[in-house]
Each structure stands twice: as C-alpha cells, then as structure tokens.
Amino acid sequence: MFSDCIIMAGGSGTRLWPASNAAKPKQFLTYRSKDSEKNTPSGGIFYQTFFASALERGLAVLATDGRLIIIAAECYTSLVLAECARFGEEARRRMVLIPEPEAKNTAAAIACGVRYAAMDGDRCILVLTSDHIIAPLEVFKANAAVAYRTALKQDALVVFGIPPTKPETAYGYIEAAECLTGTGAIKVASFREKPDKLTAERFLEAGGFYWNSGMFAFTSGFMLGEFARLAPDVFAAFDRLPPPSASAYTTESGLRILGAWAGLAAAYHESKRVSFDYAIAERCARTFMVVADFAWRDIGSWDEYAPLAGSNGAEVYEAGAESCFVDADIPVALCGVKDLIVVVRSGKDGGASSVLVARKGETQRIREIVEQIRDAGRTELL
User: Fold this and answer.
1) pTM
2) How far apart are CA 88 and CA 19, in angstroms?
C-alpha cells in the first residue's frame, strides 16, 4: 500500500463556531461514533476526535514501513501531541509532525508534504483530510487500494468521488468521463465549483457528477512534475528546501516533530496562498476517480454535528423547553423555547467568550455571522 500518507490538519474552520475556532478547530472536536464503524461487534458508543479517526485511516492504508506525515499549524502542536499520544508506541514511531509556520491553504501544505516524502525517492502518497467522518474502515481501505494501483499504473492524480444524495451547494463536484476497464477507476472529465441550487439539481438529475471529497492519491514523481508545470509560484520555494538534518527533529511523547527544518518558514512565506484544487486538481491533464463505497460525511453545520456531539457535559436546566441542543462550558437554563441550538464558550479556557443561539435548520447561516465578525474587525472571536 501507500509509502506515505499526508494528513492535513491546519485549518481553523468556523462552520462549527464558536466551539470550532482558531484555538481549537473542528478537527480536534469530538464526535459520537459507533463500535460498528470500527468493525467491532459490541455496537457501543464512543467519542473520538475527527483528527484521531483520520490518523486511524492513514495507518490502515500504509505499507509496513510507511510514514504518516502530519501537516498542522504550529499553534496546534499541543493538540496534535495529545491525540497522537492515544496511539501505541509502534504507531507513533511511524508518524512525523511538520508544524506549519503560517497558514497558506492546502496547496502549500501538500507541496510541503510531497517535498518531504520525495527526499526518500519516488513514493506513492495518499492525502487525507482530518475533519470528515468515513466508515467503515475496511471499505475505505478497499477503495484506497484501487486508488493506489491506479496512481502507480496510470501515473496520474486519483481523487475520491462521493455519490451525491441531494443537490448540495456546499461541495465542489467531479464530472465523470469513461470507466477505465478492469481497474475500478473512472477518467475525470472536469471539476466544477460549488454550484448554485439550480445547477446542483441539474447535476443530480443528469448523473455522472460526484461530490469532491478532498482526498488525493499520486506518486511523488508525478506530483512534483505537476507542481512545477502548474503551480511554480507555490512549489518553487519548497523545491529549494534541503533535506532536514537530524538536529531538526525533536521527540515529544514518542512523536517526532520536524520543528527546525532550515528554510521552511521562508518557503511558506514565499508560497502563493491557494487551494490544491485550484492550483493542481482542476488543471491536471491526467486525473482518475475512485467512486466511494464507504459512507462519507463532511460535518458542515451544527444541525449535522449536534446529533453526533452528545451532551458534551453541558449543565442544562429546562422549564418547558423542547427539542433543544446545548453545548456549553457554563450552566445554561432554557425556558419555554424549542428547536434551538445553543453553544456557549465562556472564555475560561483562555479563548474569547462567545455565544451562539440558532434555530434548528438555520445554522448554515453561521457563515454570515463569521463574515460580520470579520468585517467588524473582531477576529479574536474566531
């Protein structure tokens, strides 16, 4: 299987604001999962972070000598360490954390990971997100094996397409072309931007369109060539990085941290801020898709997250309240209200204090609130 897996964990997503914020973004929030998703028989409930489940996926598809390359914002180092510490010593030996000195979107993060991996020769790499729910693991592994074989044999970029279940406007789409006989992969005709409602409905009715999962497979040799051809303004600075010296690494809680890679800060500073989709995927001449047989969920709103979040230990008092969800770090009382989502962060953890009150079914509008906060210059709330 894959010689390297890059886990992107640098985002500071705000769709689950204020629980998800710059200090503790979505990938480090916990969600309520089931033992059945791990192919265990008890059917019990357990809680884990989105990031920890991504680590499990990465470890599951690696070759025996494979590496898990974690690319995360430098300010999230302690959060990454805490999650990696939950894994055994053998698993942690296969991980390396590269702290990002600044946020430059996914193209720079992937360029950094590919450059690091390629210093050990041509590698077959899988790039995973760290904020999605994917199950069951065995089905994901089977689909990842198809992507691995396709990336090697076709010398191409391989993406994972999610069969759409509704005319979703929050995701980009992949348009399929012809099947590649005997491989389980499909040639990609085009990538489409997040559509309006009418266009999404047209995609769903026409068929042959899939949600873009944001996961990619390729060989390092192929991707180095694509970066040089399509995005030199992203990759040139990373291409100049020398192999890190032994002294560039430290070890904490059994996890190697590449915290002193000479030239990394300058490379990030010089690199263009752009997504991998815009820089590479949408312009790549050789792209194939594996249609996902696994269940995939991008938890993009409190309406979706609340059923998975459980009580979160909130202390709630109710009088005549119906069908409300509360996630709070201080006591909350509800009187005579229904169908509300209430999220409170008091600031006692050192972050900013903030409160969200939303009617169920309206939490997608948090993006409007986030824009208002930015426009007001109150980015410390995010």
Assistant:
1) 0.91
2) 29
